[in-house]
Design a protein that fits this description.
Aspartate Aminotransferase, domain 1, Orn_Lys_Arg_decarboxylase-I, Ornithine Decarboxylase, Chain A, domain 4, globular, decarboxylase, PyrdxlP-dep_Trfase_major, 7-stranded mixed β-sheet, Aspartate Aminotransferase, domain 2, Arginine decarboxylase, Prn/Lys/Arg_de-COase_C_sf, binds pyridoxal-5'-phosphate, alpha/beta, 16 helices
């Protein structure tokens, strides 16, 4: 078999051939959105169209033709003053946003549960992050929104912070009150940057949460590939005119992206915008209707709980993305990790992710009635795979101590380090990050003092089979500390 000699191609072909029902990104769902709209011819023969900047094909980093026009149209469609196409995901948009508005040594307020690219952005920019604690839903065991008062208090404590960075929606679909946060941030002369990776679809249906740019953010990065029709890794950075130095932003966008951008990816962003402009309302209407149907049926007929608008006004939640199907399996005694496994192995459905209590299924404009019904039937049926042992996973509590920062993460990275036994680590300064799921909040960052209850908590997580991302020893017997 030729594929045996081409392992990556083999792996993606096998997955495509498996016909697993994808409730994960990318939002085009194996190109299904194009078939649904009779547009399958648009992105045919991609390899023939893959090209560099020959005459007639524009340049991403100094656009004058097609790219400039496509970005202009996107800005109009997504309600921004400027839009920049990204071929290194929202990750690159987050780096560029942060670097464009700060200088080394500056303070920036970021959520404690921010995506790792936000922490990386503070490392690249040699910044001092100060953390905004999100509200935790104790039943689902996950972080939800950031309260407006949390931002106000943090700004009181750190009046010298340059900018406030918020993640909204979260991976689970919870939105913070960006409008109110924008107001207090701007009243104090600061900038508001939003990680809206999971909210590209928001501008195209009135039942969805308000988009960050419309709510007053100065910049918002969206992973178009996650919920709309563009190719994996393609994103957009939307900017509001006024407070942002656009030339500086363009400089950093060049710095964090390749000089050989894929025009096929850029074209897929253009196509994603076209589809939403022409058909957005209609295809989102269907997506919202069936996602709500799945949600309501799960809540009425199963022991599980599907996150919905009933949670608005609790745990910092201002709004909920109705298209996101986040299901807490705790009531049925099944762990999220086990639930994901059951859906994959018994029903050939692949969800986006799972944690100890929850699974997250990404529904999108590409899904149809049959896919939603298949997901619903499987979730209603999965109770019979109940395994009492999994219940142990629900009992782990977050540590009580608040991490105390000794030096900023960027500085910790350049210090001399050593590996020591975890038992002996309390009192030392960590040189690594430790992020268990749930709740996806780093309990340790590089540069923070290690406390005993944090070590106990992490050991308990490992004992229960919860993965800790960021640690160098997956078994957590050793930890990297600053010498
Ligand atoms: C909340 C959040 N922000 C940012 C990112 C990074 O986005 P991208 O994969 O487009 O670089 C992700 C990716 O999963 C994410 O979940």
């Amino acid at each position: 078999m030729i594929y045996d000699d081409i392992p990556i191609l083999k792996s993606i072909k096998e997955y495509a051939d498996s016909e697993a029902l994808p409730f994960h990104m990318p939002g085009h769902k194996r190109g299904k959105i194009f078939n649904k709209l009779g547009l399958e011819y648009l992105l045919e023969n991609l390899i023939e169209m893959d090209t560099t900047e020959v005459p007639g094909v524009d340049n991403l980093h100094s656009p004058e033709g097609a790219v400039l026009e496509a970005q202009r149209r996107a800005a109009e469609a997504f309600g921004a003053d400027y839009t920049f196409f990204l071929i290194n995901g929202t990750t690159s948009g987050i780096y560029a946003m942060i670097l464009a508005v700060t200088k080394p040594g500056d303070k920036i307020l970021i959520p404690r549960n921010a995506h790792r690219s936000v922490v990386s952005g503070t490392i690249l920019g040699k910044l001092v992050p100060e953390y905004l604690m999100p509200e935790i839903d104790p039943y689902m065991g996950i972080p939800m929104g950031i309260k407006v008062s949390t931002v106000a208090e943090a700004l009181d404590h750190h009046p010298d912070a340059k900018a406030v960075f918020i993640t909204s929606p979260t991976y689970y679909g919870a939105c913070s009150d960006i409008e109110a946060i924008a107001k207090i941030v701007h009243d104090r002369g600061k900038l508001l940057l939003v990680d809206e990776a999971h909210g590209s679809h928001f501008p195209f249906h009135p039942e969805l949460p308000i988009s960050a740019i419309k709510a007053g953010a100065d910049m918002a990065a969206q992973s178009t590939h996650k919920t709309l029709a563009s190719m994996t890794g393609s994103s957009m950075l939307h900017v509001k005119d006024g407070r942002i130095d656009i030339d500086r932003l363009k400089f950093f966008l060049q710095l964090v992206q390749t000089t050989s951008p894929s025009h096929v990816m850029l074209a897929s962003l253009d196509v994603a915008r076209y589809i939403m402009e022409k058909h957005g309302h209609m295809i989102l209407e269907e997506c919202i209707k069936y996602s709500n149907m799945v949600r309501n049926e799960i809540n009425a007929k199963s022991p599980f709980y599907c996150l919905g608008k009933d949670k608005i006004n609790s745990y910092g939640i201002h709004d909920i993305d109705s298209t996101r199907i986040t299901i807490c399996l705790k009531g049925g005694g099944i762990s999220g990790v086990k639930g994901e496994e059951i859906l994959r192995n018994k029903y050939n459905i692949q969800v986006e992710m799972s944690d100890a209590r929850n699974i997250v299924a990404i529904s999108s404009i590409a899904d149809d009635e049959e896919s939603y019904m298949r997901l619903l039937r499987a979730v209603l049926d999965m109770g019979r795979w109940h395994n009492a042992e999994d219940e142990l996973l629900h009992e782990i509590r977050l540590p009580y101590s608040t991490p105390v920062c000794s030096i900023p993460p960027y500085e910790a990275l350049y210090r001399q380090v050593e590996y020591i036994d975890v038992e002996k680590s309390p009192g030392h300064i960590s040189a690594e990050m430790a992020v268990p799921y749930p709740p996806g909040i780093p309990v340790l960052m590089p540069g923070e003092y290690i406390e005993k209850d944090i070590v106990d908590y992490l050991r308990k997580c490992i004992g229960e089979g919860i993965k800790i991302s960021g640690v160098s020893d997956p078994k957590f017997n050793k930890i990297k500390v600053i010498k």
